[in-house]
UniProtKB/TrEMBL annotation:
Native source species: Dendrobium nobile
Taxonomic path: Eukaryota, Viridiplantae, Streptophyta, Embryophyta, Tracheophyta
Membrane-topology annotation of the record: Multi-pass membrane protein
Annotated protein name in UniProt: Tetraspanin-2
Keyword Transmembrane part of the UniProt annotation: yes
The keyword Membrane appears for this protein: yes
Major localisation: membrane
Amino acid sequence: MGVSNNIIAILNFIALLCSIPIIASGIWLASKPDSECIRLVRWPVIILGVLILLVSLAGFVGAYWNHQCLLAAYLFSMATLIVLLLALLVFSFVVTHNDGEYDVPGRGYKEYRLAGFSDWLRHYVGDDGHWVRIRACLSQSDVCGKLARDDAYFTADQFFRTVLSPIQSGCCKPPTVCGYTYVNPTVWVSPANVAADPDCYAWSNDQTQLCYGCNSCKAGTIGNLRGEWRKANIVLIIAAVALIWVYIIGCSALKNAQTEELFRRYKQGFA
């Protein structure tokens, strides 16, 4: 095996290693409570990472055994996967650019409004057909139950200083504007005059209902999803940059390998 092929094999091994954090990011996203309910984010990153791993493995085999057709297929496939990865990054940045969170005076947690998020996320999560399934999934999860167990003996002031996840803030308690009185994290007493906000009427102390029917719950779910995607994007950007460099160097090494092969044949012709 020539020097150029050795370089290509090493580069493909690096590309194979780059696929591991991509797959890990997809698994991390899929393991989140909101991701289990929003099927959209379960598989794209994992599938892309697995494909990069398989293509890198094929490129490694092609370089090791000097199989030019396999190397050419590797270059085409890897270019396609890098474009798909970049497209996924651009898409995720566009749809997660807007942020619907806002500060609440005297509260350690933030609250969320649907209008602050991108149209695409609002449509996908807030669509009635999708939300019926997502709401049922969230109500069966342990997101609010864990909050009620862990913080059950908090005083109101202690709870108000607590930092909540977007889902906990939007789905497990009524919005602050409603003026409900705190009993425990998932039980609140209705005021004499309820604010006109529809979410104030949607709140229920029934632990299977809570604020799962509220717009604030939709907004909190999107807020959770947005935060997780933006964290995963950091890993994906690093992996994409590494893959692009590996691909560029690999193309150069393959060109050198082809030149070596032509030179070898040329010498054999005069032997």
